[in-house]
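Hi V.,

Quick status before I head out on leave. The structure for the redesign project is tokenized and pasted below; the design run finished overnight.
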């Protein structure tokens, strides 16, 4: 290529445009012109409104993730608050139900204590209140443990009553506790009196009767009917007379047997007694037996009047 044909001018990349000062002066003048025009003529508000209207969909789409995140956080906070309120409400309902049950239990216990106090005022024998702690661990007996013992003056054989009648008898005494055999224990017996007829008999615990009593050795033609009230007869020297014991529930008269089978239901709460009265045995309240005359037989004979023998 000949040297004369070479282009000796600078390439476009290295060409110099307007100077920086010229550009700054032009832009400054244009800015001042636009500010004056906007102040005088109000040109930019329509342009700004058109631009904002055109960009509104883009702005709305850009704000949706933020709005969804905010709604999600508010929803989770609302759910947690509702769950906490629900937990508090459930706890309150449980507490109210527990208090209602306690109120019913306290009302029942208060009524039983009032009945027990009324029974205590009718008794003439010395007594003391006791509380049933638990049932005896022996599964083959029907006994309970009370919180009174020798130190509190509980005697062996002392009658035990609840607000409805005779519950049992103290059969074992410890220093701080006592064991009470219930009426329905298989080894228990108590003399009773039929209030309607006045006939005396003995009631025995009936282990096969599911918590009942049985009048044994009663003749087949005995005057006993269902619903007869049985009370203590007072002839055993243990129980005061007139304490409610049981009611006759069923009478079986068999032609092949000389004795009738008489089943009774105890009036005392043998399954749920809690507060009881422990009486002193009736024998401890009786006056002592007078001592026998210690004079010898010869002295007794001397005190006798002389025997008159008729003369023939």
């Amino acid at each position: 290529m000949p040297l004369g044909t070479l282009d000796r001018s600078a390439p476009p990349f290295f060409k110099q445009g307007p100077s920086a000062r010229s550009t700054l002066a032009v832009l400054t003048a244009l800015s001042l012109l636009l500010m004056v025009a906007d102040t005088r003529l109000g040109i930019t508000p329509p342009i700004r409104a058109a631009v904002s209207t055109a960009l509104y969909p883009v702005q709305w789409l850009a704000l949706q993730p933020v709005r969804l995140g905010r709604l999600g956080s508010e929803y989770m906070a609302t759910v947690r608050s509702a769950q906490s309120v629900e937990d508090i409400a459930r706890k309150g309902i449980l507490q109210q139900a527990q208090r209602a049950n306690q109120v019913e239990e306290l009302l029942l216990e208060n009524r039983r204590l009032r009945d027990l106090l009324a029974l205590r005022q009718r008794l003439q024998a010395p007594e003391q209140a006791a509380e049933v702690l638990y049932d005896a661990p022996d599964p083959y007996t029907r006994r309970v443990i009370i919180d009174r013992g020798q130190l509190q003056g509980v005697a062996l054989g002392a009658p035990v009553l609840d607000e409805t009648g005779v519950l049992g008898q103290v059969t074992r005494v410890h220093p701080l506790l006592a064991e009470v055999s219930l009426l329905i224990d298989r080894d228990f017996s108590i003399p009773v009196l039929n209030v309607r007829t006045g006939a005396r008999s003995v009631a025995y615990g009936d282990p096969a009767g599911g918590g009942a009593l049985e009048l044994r050795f009663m003749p087949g033609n005995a005057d006993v009917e269902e619903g007869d009230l049985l009370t203590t007869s007072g002839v055993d020297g243990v129980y005061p007379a007139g304490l409610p014991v049981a009611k006759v529930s069923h009478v079986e008269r068999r032609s092949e047997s000389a004795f009738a089978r008489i089943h009774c239901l105890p009036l005392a709460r043998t399954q749920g007694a809690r507060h009881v009265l422990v009486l002193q045995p009736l024998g401890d309240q009786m006056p002592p037996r007078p001592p026998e005359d210690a004079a010898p037989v010869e002295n007794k004979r001397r005190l006798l009047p002389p025997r008159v023998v008729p003369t023939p």
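Above is the designed sequence. The first strand starts at residue 127 and ends at 135.

G. will cover questions while I'm gone.

Best,
W.
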